[in-house]
Amino acid sequence: MHSAPEDAFAITNALTETPDTPSVIELTFVKGIPTELNGQPMKFSEIIQQLNTLAGEHGIGRIDHIENRLVGIKSREVYEAPAATVLLKAHKELEDLTFERDLAHFKPTIEKQLSELVYNALWFSPLMDALNAFIDKSQEVVSGTIKAQLFKGNVTILGRKSASSLYDKDLATYTAADSFDQEAAKGFIKLWGLPTQVYSQVQLKNKQSQFVKAVTKSHAEDKVAVQGHYASQNGAKK
């Protein structure tokens, strides 16, 4: 096993060469698109260039993995993507803050299919057009600012802010001041668990029935064996 040689990397530092002081940044998104870095409006391309430099200094964005190519063979690929690493994490945090639950759970499915189309050079396919329409619609609420720390190869999220945030601390404080009606949870829990409860009862009933049948069969076999034993003994006595 061999590590990628250090001279294979051009824009990221080895962790041993990274600063001992973290950098804190703020990224602002409008409908899913990065528009500001540290409060300064910039073109998307400029944000990428600055993040490549800043995150690269902290050793962020080195990727060494095995890929499955379109033709079926596996290959080891080494990449540098400091800006993309930071942007993807910040963007995901903003989505988690603004997405409704079902959308948040479903979007990774679309992301996987979309990334495969890009990897397989199918950017102009009808499916790509349809998936992009989904992405555009989903991003309508993804506006806000993410605060992150860059340090020793890691991106750590420090804060999130959005006018479209669905987080309500009064509903999720887990304290006596929680505005959520805990009594309402009792009925929900009973209804939510009902299908599993019925399933478990049926499974238990079937297992008990199988056990009774097995015991009955065993007793019957024992009875036949005993009768055969006595019959054999009586025949021998005669």
Automatic annotation (TrEMBL):
Any single Pfam family the record assigns to this protein: Arginosuc_syn_C
Ranges where the Arginosuccinate synthase C-terminal domain occurs: 3-199
Protein name per Swiss-Prot or TrEMBL: argininosuccinate synthase
Gene Ontology molecular function: argininosuccinate synthase activity; ATP binding
Keyword Amino-acid biosynthesis: yes
The organism of origin for this protein: Lentilactobacillus farraginis DSM 18382 = JCM 14108
Subunit text: Homotetramer.
Keywords: Amino-acid biosynthesis, Arginine biosynthesis, ATP-binding, Cytoplasm, Ligase, Nucleotide-binding
Pathway where it operates: Amino-acid biosynthesis; L-arginine biosynthesis; L-arginine from L-ornithine and carbamoyl phosphate: step 2/3
Enzyme class, broadest EC rank: ligase
